[in-house]
């Protein structure tokens, strides 16, 4: 195939969707609007959003430090992000209440001349789609992301970087049709690149860089930078390892979700799907680190991430536990209803709610948690040296084993996640359910072909089950916030409809700030007869739907806030 530079070496990706999903989204948003959303998803936001840890510092101090870092950076970061070279790219968020959020403007898409600044035809590196998405957010091209490259690449050579996008197979599957280490063949006489997917991979050129390793090195070593991408389609500084503990890179809607919960000092809050802890730490800061946030997640290692982030940010009101959100409620009087903790000397204390006297039970019901449970959790969170909390007996057995056998993997990582058996009904003032979702709002995204209408519905089913648990854990008069990072109505408006129809004691509550757009009103009938109900007129302005193609230029995100009325 003839090498057509202008169509291959530009950045104009077209997001591929499953045809039925595309039809569904076209119905939901209208074809033009969905086309705009789809295009916006292929690009990063034009700015990095930084949440300042106000427990440790101020946004003014952070702006000063970041300006210095950008100005003094050897990579010329300030020049990299300044599109017009004049005004400072760093500014404080102007939305009332969000002054502790700092924006760093980036620029792009830039047209990168193929082979600009070099004499010969550049050599080429093909990276995986995941690698490219990270690079578009400001990361370097790391070794594991490189799939193929032309022959004879030497360290220091100029290379063009393109994306090896998934292609459809014969059986409805998708693959890159390439094994790592493939040599891209170029017929120099005819100026032809031997890529069977030449045209399918066009429009996916993400920049020019300098090879940091030879071709052999790129496929031999396990980590490190493969290409220093110094001429990029999108220029956004990476704040990896910058001002650790003082700032946290977080999407604006995620920060808004923490505000929607409206946490108050001294309250007891559950973050049901907390890892890596972005919203947990945002909530803790809004509470000025006073009160108790239980940060739960199903994944042990991810719980450790929350512990690490909390420690790095110097936040002490966060306790963590490993807990399946589908089993978050432990009913009083059931034998399994016990909370086990490991004390500082690794002996264990077990409190079973079924062992509580009826007086204690009443007190527990009234306050939401028993003194025994409190002290049990305190033991875990304060005495355990590595910060674990609600710990199961199997964990204790493992821990004893580890003591005998030396340090295990998790210990050497500096922590251990306590396993919780759940919490009694009505035991939290507020609950955040930031549900696992299809993540179809995250950007930049270069491929969306794997989700089907059935898988989209299944996400919604999973979220409804989690919601059923969450709603039981909030006390009467409390607040439940439900959020996702997807544009899929089955996981957003349809879950809200389910919640309001099933739990008559729930009502949508106003959110502050409200900077997202309205939700979708109506219903959708699918060709297979399935009917999905969305919001009713009047409800759309109560939720916040962040549209990636809107002026705010955020990820796609959805937030619904519920007030919990009397439950009987
Ligand atoms: C959207 S992410 C949460 C992001 C987090 N709230 C933050 O702001 O940093 C969803 C999380 O849900 C967790 N998860 C998935 N299924 C779960 C389950 N059944 N119970 C608890 N957590 C679950 C995943 O491990 C993942 O960390």
Can you offer a commentary on this structure?
The protein has 568 residues and is of the alpha+beta class. The chain has four domains: 47-105; 111-232, Archaeosine Trna-guanine Transglycosylase, Chain: A, domain 4 (Roll); 251-329 and 425-568, Rossmann fold, CATH 3.40.50; 332-415, no CATH class. It has 16 helices and 26 strands. The strands form six sheets. Strands 5-13-12-7-4-6-10-11 form an eight-stranded mixed β-sheet. Strands 15, 16, 17, 20, 21, 22, 25 and 26 form an eight-stranded mixed β-sheet that branches. A hairpin with a 5-residue loop joins strand 8 (167-168) and strand 9 (174-175). Helix 2 crosses helix 3 (31-41), helix 8 packs across helix 9 (278-286) and helix 15 crosses helix 16. The protein starts with a helix and ends with a strand. The structure holds S-adenosylmethionine (SAM).
Question: What's the arrangement of secondary structure elements?
Answer:
Blueprint: H1 5-8, H2 19-29, H3 31-41, E1 47-52, H4 59-72, H5 77-81, E2 90-92, E3 101-105, E4 123-128, H6 129-136, E5 141-142, E6 146-150, E7 158-164, E8 167-168, E9 174-175, E10 182-187, E11 192-194, E12 205-211, H7 215-220, E13 225-232, E14 247-249, H8 252-261, E15 268-271, H9 278-286, E16 292-297, H10 300-312, E17 318-322, E18 338-342, E19 348-352, H11 358-367, H12 371-383, H13 393-405, H14 409-412, E20 428-434, H15 453-473, E21 474-484, H16 493-502, E22 506-508, E23 523-525, E24 531-533, E25 544-546, E26 557-564
Parallel strand pairs: 4-7, 6-10, 15-16, 15-20, 16-17, 20-21
Antiparallel strand pairs: 1-3, 1-14, 2-3, 4-6, 5-13, 7-12, 8-9, 10-11, 12-13, 18-19, 21-26, 22-26, 23-24, 25-26
Helix pairs in contact: 2-3, 8-9, 15-16
The structure holds S-adenosylmethionine.
């Amino acid at each position: 195939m003839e090498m057509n530079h202008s169509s291959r070496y530009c950045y104009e990706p077209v997001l591929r969707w499953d045809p039925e999903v595309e039809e569904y989204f076209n119905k939901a948003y209208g074809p033009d609007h969905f086309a705009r959303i789809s295009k916006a998803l292929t690009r990063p936001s034009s700015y990095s959003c930084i949440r300042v840890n106000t427990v440790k510092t101020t946004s003014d101090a952070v702006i000063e430090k970041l300006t210095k870092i950008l100005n003094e950076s050897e990579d010329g970061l300030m020049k990299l992000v300044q599109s017009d070279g004049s005004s400072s790219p760093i500014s404080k968020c102007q939305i009332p209440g969000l002054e502790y959020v700092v924006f760093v403007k980036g620029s792009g898409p830039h047209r990168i001349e193929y082979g600009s600044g070099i004499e010969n035809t550049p050599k080429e590196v093909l990276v995986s789609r995941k690698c490219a998405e990270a690079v578009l957010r400001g990361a370097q091209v790391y070794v594991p992301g490189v799939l193929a490259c032309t022959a004879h690449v030497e360290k220091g050579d100029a290379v063009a970087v393109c994306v090896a996008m998934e292609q459809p197979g014969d059986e409805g599957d998708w693959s890159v049709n390439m094994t790592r280490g493939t040599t891209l063949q170029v017929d120099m006489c005819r100026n032809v690149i031997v890529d069977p997917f030449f045209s399918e991979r066009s429009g996916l050129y993400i920049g020019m860089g300098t090879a940091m390793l030879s071709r052999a090195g790129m496929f031999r070593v396990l980590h490190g930078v493969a290409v220093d991408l110094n001429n990029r389609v999108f220029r956004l500084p990476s704040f990896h390892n910058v001002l650790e503990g003082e700032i946290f890179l977080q999407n604006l809607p995620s920060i808004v979700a923490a505000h929607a919960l409206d946490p108050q000092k001294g309250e007891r809050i559950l973050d049901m799907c907390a890892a890596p802890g972005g919203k947990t730490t945002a909530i803790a800061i809004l509470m000025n680190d006073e009160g108790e946030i239980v940060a739960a997640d199903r994944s042990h290692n991810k719980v450790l991430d929350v512990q690490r982030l909390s420690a790095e940010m110097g936040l002490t009101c966060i306790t963590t536990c490993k807990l399946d959100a589908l089993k978050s409620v432990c009913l009083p009087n059931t034998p399994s209803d016990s909370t086990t903790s490991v004390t500082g000397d690794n002996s264990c204390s077990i409190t079973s709610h079924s062992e509580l006297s009826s007086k204690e039970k009443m007190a527990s019901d009234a306050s939401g948690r028993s003194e025994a449970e409190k002290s049990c959790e305190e033991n875990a969170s304060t005495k355990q040296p590595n910060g674990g909390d609600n710990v199961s007996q199997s964990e204790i057995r493992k821990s004893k084993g580890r003591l005998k056998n030396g340090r295990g993997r998790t210990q050497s990582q500096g922590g251990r996640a306590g396993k919780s058996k759940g919490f009694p009904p009505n035991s939290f003032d507020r609950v955040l359910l930031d549900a696992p979702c299809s993540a179809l709002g995250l950007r930049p995204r270069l491929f969306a072909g794997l989700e089907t209408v059935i898988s989209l519905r299944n996400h919604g089913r999973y979220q409804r089950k989690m919601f059923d648990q969450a709603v039981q854990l909030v006390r009467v008069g409390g607040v439940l916030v439900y959020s996702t990072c997807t544009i899929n109505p089955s996981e957003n408006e349809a879950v809200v409809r389910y919640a309001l129809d099933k739990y008559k004691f729930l009502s949508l509550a106003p959110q502050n700030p409200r900077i997202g757009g309205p939700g979708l009103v109506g219903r959708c009938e699918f060709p297979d007869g399935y009917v999905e109900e969305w919001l009713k007129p009047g409800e759309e302005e109560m939720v916040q739907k962040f549209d990636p193609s809107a002026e705010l230029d955020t990820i796609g995100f959805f937030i619904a806030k519920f007030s919990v009325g009397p439950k009987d």
